[in-house]
Amino acid sequence: MSLSFIRGKHSFRLLPLLLAGIITYIPAPLWAANNTVQIDAERMNMFHKDNRVEFFGKVHLVRDTMVLDCDHLTAYYVDNKLTHADAEGHVVIVQDKVHGHSNKARLDQLNGKLTLSGKAVLDQDGNRIEGETIVHDMNRKDTVVTPGESGRIHMRIESDEGNNSVIVPGTGAGK
Question: What is the dihedral of CA 53, 54, 60, 61, to 10 degrees?
Answer without folding.
Answer: 20
